[in-house]
C-alpha cells in the first residue's frame, strides 16, 4: 500500500530530476524561498561553494589589495630594469583567491618554481617564473642582449643559481610592500620544475595568487606569486584595517588646499649619513679619487625640504630619471605642511 501511495503522488522526484538538481553547474535549476523555479531568462545561475574553505575576502577587499599590488609591480619593474640594465616591462594581470590545486595545475612544465618561506609567518609561498623568461634572464646576466627566443627546457644548476638572484629580488620587493605592518625576512628553500610535485599546502587550501605579465627584449611571459591565505592573513587584515581607518579619517577631516599654493616652489635635496672620515683623509682628497659607499645607503636616503629633513626612503632609477620612494615621514614634514603624509 505504501508503494501505491507513493506511486500516486505527484510530489515525488524521480531519479532524473534528483540528478538534475544535485548535478550543480551553471545549468542547474534555481528555486526561490517559496519553491518556485526561476526561469532560464532570469539569468540566475548556481555555483558550487566549498564550506571547508570559505572565501573570507570580498571583491571589495580584493580590489583594495589589488591597488596595493599595483604599486608593488610599479616599483618592481624599476628594480628589475636596474638589475638587468635594460628596460623590463611588468604589468599586473590580476589578484585572485583560489585553491592550491588549481594553482599547481596551472604550472606549465618545464617550470621554474621557487619555494620561499617567511621567517615571521607560517607556510611556504611559491614564485612561478615562465621558463622562457627565466632562460632569457640568464642570457642577459651572462652578457647577452636578452633578445633570444629560447627553447622550452629546464634550467641547469648554474642557470638556476643565476635565476635565484633574479627571484630573490622579486621576493624581497614583494616583502617590502608589507613593511608598514610587519618586517618580513624571506628565505629560498627549494625549486621545482613541475607542478605535480608541489605539496607545500593541502590541495584544498586557499591561496592568494598575484599574476604579472613580464616582457623585455622580444620575450614575454607570466610571473605568479602564490601565498597561502593562512600565511598572509595577518598582513591582509592589518592592511584592510589601515585602509578603513584612512578612509574614515579622510571623511572626518578632509585636507584643505588652495589654488594659490600650486605655483609655490620649494628647495629640495637628498642626503646620506654615509660614514666618518679623519681630517687628514679629508684634506688628502683630490680630483678623481673614488670613495666607496655601502649599498644600504640607497634605501636610507633623507629628503630635505626647505632645509628640514622631512622624508626617508629609497633612491633609484626610473627610466632616464632618478626617483625617490618615500618609506617614512618625519615630524618636520607634518609641521611643514600642517597635515600628515601617508
Mean pLDDT over all positions: 80
> What is the terminal-to-terminal distance?
78 Å
Biggest sheet architecture: 6 strands, antiparallel
**So how many helices?**
9
Going by CATH, what is the homologous superfamily of the largest domain?
CheC-like
**Can you give the helix content as a percent range?**
25-40%
The total number of structural domains is 3
Could you say what the CATH architecture of the largest domain is?
3-Layer(aba) Sandwich
Structural class: alpha+beta
| CATH fold field value of the largest domain | Chemotaxis protein chec
Name of the CATH class of the largest domain:
Alpha Beta
Oligomer: single chain
What is the succession of H and E elements?
Answer: HHHEHEEHHEEEHEHEEEH
Unreliable spans: none
The proportion of residues in beta strands is: 15-25%
- Count the beta strands: 10
Shape: globular
Tell me the radius of gyration.
Answer: 28 Å
Task: Describe the protein in words.
- The protein has 342 residues and is α+β, with helices and mostly antiparallel strands.
- The chain contains nine helices and ten strands.
- It has helices at residues 2-8, 15-22, 59-84, 100-105, 131-141, 157-176, 229-252, 279-283, 331-337, and strands at 89-99, 112-118, 124-129, 186-192, 206-216, 219-228, 268-271, 301-305, 308-318, 321-329.
- A six-stranded antiparallel beta sheet has the order 1-5-6-3-2-4. Strands 7-8-9-10 form a four-stranded antiparallel beta sheet.
- Helix 5 packs across helix 6 (157-176).
- The mean pLDDT is 80.
Amino acid at each position: 500500500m505504501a508503494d501505491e501511495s507513493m506511486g500516486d503522488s505527484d510530489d515525488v522526484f524521480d531519479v532524473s530530476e534528483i540528478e538534475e538538481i544535485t548535478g550543480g553547474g551553471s545549468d542547474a535549476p534555481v528555486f526561490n524561498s517559496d519553491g518556485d523555479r526561476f526561469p532560464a531568462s532570469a539569468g540566475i545561475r548556481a555555483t558550487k561553494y566549498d564550506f571547508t574553505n570559505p572565501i573570507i575576502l570580498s571583491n571589495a577587499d580584493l580590489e583594495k589589495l589589488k591597488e596595493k599590488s599595483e604599486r608593488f609591480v610599479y616599483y618592481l619593474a624599476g628594480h628589475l630594469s636596474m638589475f638587468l640594465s635594460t628596460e623590463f616591462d611588468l604589468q599586473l594581470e590580476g589578484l585572485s583567491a583560489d585553491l592550491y590545486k588549481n594553482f599547481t595545475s596551472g604550472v606549465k612544465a618545464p617550470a621554474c618554481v621557487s619555494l620561499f618561506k617567511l621567517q615571521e609567518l607560517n607556510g611556504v609561498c611559491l614564485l612561478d617564473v615562465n621558463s622562457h623568461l627565466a632562460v632569457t634572464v640568464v642570457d642577459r646576466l651572462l652578457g647577452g642582449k636578452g633578445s633570444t627566443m629560447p627553447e622550452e627546457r629546464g634550467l641547469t644548476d648554474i642557470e638556476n643559481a643565476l635565476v635565484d638572484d633574479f627571484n630573490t629580488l622579486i621576493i624581497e620587493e614583494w616583502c617590502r610592500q608589507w613593511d608598514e605592518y610587519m618586517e618580513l625576512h624571506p628565505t629560498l628553500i627549494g625549486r621545482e620544475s613541475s607542478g605535480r610535485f608541489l605539496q607545500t599546502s593541502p590541495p584544498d587550501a586557499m591561496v592568494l595568487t598575484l599574476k604579472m605579465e613580464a616582457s623585455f627584449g622580444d620575450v614575454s611571459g607570466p610571473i605568479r606569486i602564490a601565498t597561502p591565505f593562512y600565511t598572509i592573513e595577518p598582513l591582509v587584515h592589518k592592511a584592510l584595517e589601515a585602509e578603513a581607518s584612512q578612509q574614515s579619517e579622510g571623511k572626518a577631516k578632509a585636507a584643505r588646499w588652495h589654488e594659490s599654493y600650486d605655483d609655490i616652489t620649494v628647495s629640495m635635496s637628498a642626503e646620506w649619513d654615509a660614514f666618518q672620515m679623519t681630517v687628514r683623509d679629508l684634506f688628502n682628497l683630490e680630483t678623481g679619487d673614488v670613495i666607496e659607499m655601502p649599498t644600504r645607503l640607497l634605501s636610507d636616503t633623507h629628503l630635505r625640504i626647505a632645509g628640514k629633513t622631512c622624508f626617508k626612503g629609497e633612491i633609484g632609477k626610473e627610466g632616464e630619471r632618478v626617483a625617490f620612494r618615500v618609506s617614512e615621514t618625519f615630524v618636520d614634514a607634518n609641521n611643514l605642511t600642517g597635515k600628515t603624509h601617508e
